[in-house]
Amino acid sequence: MNALLQPPPRRPIRELPDELVSQIAAGEVVERPASVVRELVDNALDAGAAEIAIRLTGGGIRAIVVEDDGHGIAAGELALALRRHATSKIASLHELEGVATMGFRGEALAAIASIAEVSIASRTADAAHAQRLDARSGELAPSARGVGTSVEVRELFFATPARRKFLKTEATELAHCIEAVRRHALARPEVGFAVWHDGKLTQQWRRASAAQRLLDVLGSDFIEHSRELALETAVLRVNGRSGTPESARARADQQYVYVNGRFVRDKLIAHGVRSAYEDVLHGGRQPAYVLFIEIAPDRVDVNVHPTKVEVRFRDSREVHQAVRRAVEVTLAVPRAGLGVAAPEPNATPPFGSGGTAHPGAAFDPATRRYASAQQISLGLQTYAALSAQEPPARWAGQPVAAPSVPGTGAHAAPGVITAATVDAHSSAATDASTDDSTWPLGHAVAQIGGVFVLAENAQGLVIVDMHAAHERIVYERLKASLAGRADAAIESQPLLIPATFAATPHEIATAEAQADNLRALGLDVAPLSAAVLAVRSQPAALVGGDVVELARSVLAELAQFDASSVIQRAQHEILSTMACHGAVRANRRLTLEEMNALLRDMERCDRADQCNHGRPTWRQITLRELDGLFWRGR
């Protein structure tokens, strides 16, 4: 038997020595120099500092000095400050449950002192001079400095060389230290921060307004490609900025979340943000955002992890929903419709070009059925034949009935370009050439390659991917129609032979507890035995897909996140598939009236800048850019 797997000999239970306890605490609190910087800056902010200077040597490995102008530490309390669980932040369990300071454990200084050489120099307003304490020797001596505190940490991990070997290069550790300060700087614009490395000023953020601090820290590119968000509920407030989908990044390196001024990493909040971007991001792209969440301290527990970057909310659902709603409302502003009034958040969007929504266009109340993808395509074909027979000039003077979708008795599918749509805009199309500013996306002039629509507006040339744009219009209309249904359920289709799969006890318990929610998604999932689940129906729009994989993924999300948000997201994925099949296809020749109708629908559609898969739907090329292509004016 392997010696490492053999049980150790029995040893008596005894208390660990203080030095070993401090080393264990240090392993939890201090991972690298950036951890020390974070803890010391936390203390400086709690001391009321208005200016904080961080001086690093060797990327923080050889030396870290944090100086502040806070209220300082009294000489008689310096030695106590280095003892474990000694703090001025809290004094009772009641204060711990509602802690509002950055630090509160009383472990950081003691943990750092156990793995490095530490000294503290501090002076209060009523002291004649500062006092300096050496943590290793315990010697207290007079020192020269103004009101405030300086903490010097030298030779990090000198007592644990094995841990020091795991540190990266000085440049890498310096980058982590700067990032730690940047996170503080974003949340505290009223405090000035300066980072020095090897005697040179590396970063500096002067005291400024919140908007200016965002610009200083994240740069003008982020501000230009993000939108301001704000939402307030009965229990919390969310504000900040969310990046536009087209500015999404390959890495999640511009995602900042703060709870009561504390930088946190929370899977629940990240999921809420991601779900708001779910149908506007392409592939695995990551959105950029800065969110500030203000909530009563007694509704959040920050005493979850030694590093204090994880929190636990009393009601996680309300936080998830608030964050998601705040980002969704911000993203729903139709940038394609600049100058067009945005719809009310809860109102049915006027996707028809005539300005009137027709809920029955996607869902027939008589049959309680949705138009299938095939029927949506047939609606397009019907209009294609109509447009080939009827000259556009005849539509300018008289209305033409919209073609019905075969098999439903309803009008054409949502967003489908119909003769009635053309009638609403044919007269305006004639006048568009005289005033390009009438419509933000201009008036259509041509179609290229059977894929792109070219339009002219006041700024220059607009290029539209007609399939991507029409897909978004159809998708948003389907969502509005589904929300108008009493049962708000996806149509299901029974399986002739149930699909079975081996399931974990957790999956079986979730299937039993969430049976009604699964049926709302068109899924009938029930236990067949103690270790097998059977899927007896699937969404009608996804016939031919991997129903087992769909069931597994839905069960996993229902077990982890709020059921209502999971149901809505899964429903939207199904509607997205329907919209993709129902949108106008490439090489479909459109008339100018059809193109203009498509442009008008885009101007009124939420999230019209991206299709359901996150691809852009249109691009603007200005006259200046066109001039540059041909060297005009040179």
Q: What's a concise summary of this model?
A:
The chain is 35% helix and 22% strand.
Notable traits:
22% strand, single chain, five-stranded mixed beta sheet, 21 helices, 35% helix
SSE topology:
Elements lengths: L17 H12 L3 H14 L4 E7 L5 E6 L9 H4 L11 H5 L10 H6 L3 E7 L6 E5 L5 E4 L4 E7 L6 H4 L5 H18 L4 E6 L2 E6 L4 H9 L1 H5 L1 E7 L3 E8 L11 E5 L2 E2 L3 H10 L12 E7 L4 E2 L10 E2 L2 H16 L31 E2 L4 E2 L2 H17 L2 H4 L8 E2 L4 E2 L7 H13 L11 E6 L3 E6 L2 E6 H18 L8 E11 L2 H9 L1 H6 L3 E6 L2 E8 L7 H14 L2 H20 L9 H13 L13 E5 H7 L5
Parallel strand pairs: 1-7, 11-13
Antiparallel strand pairs: 1-2, 2-6, 3-4, 3-6, 4-5, 7-8, 9-10, 10-13, 11-12, 14-15, 16-17, 18-19, 20-21, 21-22, 22-26, 23-25, 24-25
Q: How does this model look, in words?
A:
By secondary structure, this protein is of the alpha+beta class. It has an eight-stranded mixed beta sheet. A hairpin with a 4-residue loop joins strand 18 and strand 19. Helix 15 (466-483) crosses helix 20 (592-604). The protein is globular and about 85 Å long. Mean pLDDT is 78; it is low at 338-436.
- The whole-number mean of residue pLDDT values reads 78
Gyration radius, in Å: 31 Å
Beta-strand portion reads 15-25%
Measured distance between first and last alpha carbons: 83 Å
Broad shape:
globular
What share of the residues lie within helices?
25-40%
Q: Could you tell me the number of beta strands?
A: 26
The low-confidence parts are: 338-436
Strand order of the largest sheet: 5-4-3-6-2-1-7-8
Biggest sheet record: 8 strands, mixed
With helices defined by DSSP (H or I, 4 residues minimum), what is the helix count?
A: 21
Structural class: alpha+beta
